[in-house]
Amino acid sequence: MNKNNWTPEVLRDKLNRAEARSIYSLEECARMVPIIQEIEELKRKRKATIIVHNYPRAVLKVIADYVGDSLELAYKAKEAKDIDVIVLVGVRFMAETAKLVNPEKIVLLPNSAAGCSLADSAPIIPVIEKIDKLRDQYKNDFAVACYVNTSAEVKAECDVCVTSSSFLKVLSKLPQKHILFLPDQHLAEQAAEALKDQKHIISWQGNCYVHHAITKEQIFALKEQYPDAPIAVHPECKIEVKEMADIIASTSKMLEFAKNSKANRIIMVTECGLAQRARLEIQRPIEVHGGCFFCAFMQTNTLEDVLHSLREMKEQIELSPYVQERARRAIERMFELMKN
To answer: Would you say 186 and 158 are in contact if contact means Cβ atoms under 8 Å apart?
Structure first.
């Protein structure tokens, strides 16, 4: 939306629609409109694009040039023409991935505190030690696959990178039998079961604290409240939660499922920001429920952070040439395997 079209009334209507309740006042939106207008002006001045993950607060999704999942964001930025600066509103590993895919562009992470419990569960030194030990054991019949929710340093030590929508296909295409999968234990558990006749999946014991905390009892309660609603579950959830799903899918696939569903209600079992996006984008009447599982890391990002980032051109993501080359190779390997 052009800055001249932003009014407190328009912003309030959008944000309250995303929240499915009237929590934003006209006064609060009147405070935010000048900030949005300055952000729009700085975007033009800096030749910048703002890309926002599905999870951060609604106002950031409303002002975004593109909203999506982590790898989608990186490649959407690559497609942008006449852009010098990418403002990645999400968490650090996403900004690093955007830099890997767009090495010639400036990538800004508006809030340096926006980390990720899953990425942080795989520190580089223990990862290298584990890889060396397993490589000694399995020799050439061993590979390392890392989920996109890892630091660029860790990606650089892996043979292939995977996403929540591609991991089963990519792992099945690797020629090696013994595969260390990191860092998410629940994706590894799902892969071990699905590929048990083909691969020996070795799990790193990490998790996303938001998805790991979701229980089957919580989903039972939602299902009792909305018995006619299909359930879409993120694969980072525990197996007993995934067993209750009508579909197990990445955030983008969950959104696609909701858009294509004929149901009047849907339950999305993931961080509550995805439900906000669904309410903004689905044009027909539909109730989107999810129990509001909240990621504190994602919610550290604010409108003021984006403004400060564009004003001061901070915080810029910098990666060494070694990490750039090796980590990008792991991502490219994923796309090669997905084509076959």
So the answer is: no
Spatial contact of 107 and 317, defined as CB atoms under 8 Å apart: yes
Do residue 278 and residue 302 come from a single domain? no
Whether 16 and 108 share a structural domain: yes
| Structural domain count of the chain | 3
Contact by Cβ (8 Å): 297, 116: yes
The answer to whether 117 and 325 are in contact (CB under 8 A) is no
Determine contact, residues 46/67, Cβ cutoff 8 Å: no
Structure-block tokens of residue 280 = 């903004």
Give one DSSP letter per residue of 66-89, joined into a string.
EEE-HHHHHHHHHH-TT--EEEEE
Signed CA dihedral, 152, 209, 23, 13: sign only? positive
Same structural domain, 201 and 180: yes
- DSSP-derived letter for residue 42 is H
Q: Helices 8-19 and 273-281, interaxial angle, to 10°? A: 120
The answer to whether residue 329 is domain-embedded is no
Q: Are 71 and 327 in contact (CB under 8 A)?
A: no
> Are the C-beta atoms of 274 and 289 separated by less than 8 Å?
no
HSE value, Cβ hemisphere, 13 Å, CA-based, for 220: 4
In a domain, 189, yes or no: yes
Dig out the tokens for 41 from the structure: 């002006």
pTM of the model: 0.92
pLDDT in tens, 71-123: 788 788 778 778 999 999 999 999 999 999 999 999 999 999 999 999 999 99
pLDDT(130) > 70:
yes
Residue 291: which pLDDT band, with cuts at 50, 70 and 90?
A: low
Tokens 């604290």 correspond to what residue? Answer: 209
In a shared domain, residues 87 and 149: no
- Residues 110 and 158 placed together within one structural domain of the fold: no
Domain range for 269: 214-289
CATH number at residue 151: 3.40.50.10800
C-beta neighbour count of 92 within 10 angstroms: 22
| Same-domain pairing of 187 and 133 | yes
* Same domain assignment for residues 172 and 96: no
